[in-house]
Amino acid sequence: MGDTDPAANKRSERQVVVLFAISVLGAVGALVAYFALPLGSDPMSVRWATLGLGLGLALSLLGIGTGAVHWAKTLMSDHEVTEKRKPISSDQATRDAAVQALVDGARDSAIARRGVLKGAVLSALAIFPLTIAVPLIGSVGGDWNISKFRHTVWRKGRRLAIDPSGRPIKASDVTVGSVFHVIPDGMRDEEHWMEEKAKAVVLLVRLDERDLKGDQSPSGETWSYDGIVAYSKICTHVGCPVALYEQQTHHLLCPCHQSTFDIADGAKVVFGPANRPLPQLPITVDAEGYLVAQDDFAEPIGPSFWERLK
C-alpha cells in the first residue's frame, strides 16, 4: 500500500516513529525508576521498584521490536526476489550486484529522506543499553562481603514460623507428606530483615521415619525430629528458591536449572548442575511442642563461592 499511496507511506512512517519514541520513553522510565524507586527493606519498595524497572524495560523492548517489524512490513521493499542456488563463493560482479541491491532497497524505502525516522531509531537503540548499563555500574560499589553467607539469624531455641504469616509451628501441625515454607520467629524485628529473611528461608517436610537415610550431622547428632526435616531453600547452584517437592520420590526441584535434591538422603544432589547438598537446619521441639532450631546451618547457605570452607 505504501509503495503506491504516498499518504499511506507517510502514515506508516509516523507510526514507526511513534513506536520507537515509545521505546525511548520506556528506557527513560526504567532509568527514572532505578533512581526514584530504590530498593529498601520494605516489601512494598521492592515491589514498586521491580514494577517500575520491569515496565520500563518492557516498553523499551516492545517499542524497538514492533517498530522494526512495522518498518519492515510497511516501508521496506516488498518485491519478491528469487535467485538460483549457486556456489557459496561469488565473483566480483555478483558482489557488486548484491551491494547495488542494498542501495536500491535503501532508495526504494526512501530512508535517506526520513530524518525523523532515522533519529527515532538511533535514539531508541542508543538509549536502551543504558537501562542495563546504569544498574550494573551502580552495583559496582555494592556490598561484596560474601562472608555474610556463612551465618543466618537462626540460633539455638529460635522457633520456626510459617512464611509469610509468622505463626510459630508445632510438630503436631506437620503431617507426613506436608510441606511448609518457614522463617525464623520474629523475623520482622531483625535489622535489615528482608535481607536476613532471604538467607534464612527454609523448607520443612515431614517424612515417614522409615524413609530417612540419615541426617547430615558430621558428628552423629540427630538434626531431624520425628521424621521432620528442614533444609535451606536457597539452591547451591546459583541461589534460586528451591520449592518444588515431589512427595513420592522425596525429591526437591529447583525450577531455574533443574537441580534435584533428595531430602530423604541429606538433600544430596541427584540431578543437575548443583555441586553440593542443601544445608540442613538442625531442629527439635521446645517444652511447648513448638519446632525450634538447634543452631544455625552448619555450613554457608546458597551458591558455592571461592572462600567457602569445605
From TrEMBL:
The keyword Metal-binding applies. SUPFAM superfamilies: ISP domain (SSF50022). Its cofactor is [2Fe-2S] cluster. Residues 199-292 form the Rieske domain. The chain crosses the membrane at residues 16-36, 48-69, 116-138. It is a multi-pass membrane protein. InterPro entries: QcrA_N, Rieske_2Fe-2S, Rieske_2Fe-2S_sf, Rieske_Fe-S_prot, Rieske_Fe-S_prot_C. Keywords: 2Fe-2S, Cell membrane, Disulfide bond, Electron transport, Iron, Iron-sulfur, Membrane, Metal-binding, Oxidoreductase, Respiratory chain, Transmembrane, Transmembrane helix, Transport. The keyword Metal-binding applies. It is found in: Cell membrane. Its main location: membrane. It comes from the Bacteria. Iron-sulfur subunit of the cytochrome bc1 complex, an essential component of the respiratory electron transport chain required for ATP synthesis. The bc1 complex catalyzes the oxidation of menaquinol and the reduction of cytochrome c in the respiratory chain. The bc1 complex operates through a Q-cycle mechanism that couples electron transfer to generation of the proton gradient that drives ATP synthesis. Belongs to the Rieske iron-sulfur protein family. PANTHER family: CYTOCHROME B-C1 COMPLEX SUBUNIT RIESKE, MITOCHONDRIAL. This is Cytochrome bc1 complex Rieske iron-sulfur subunit. The lineage of its organism: Bacteria, Bacillati, Actinomycetota, Actinomycetes, Micrococcales.
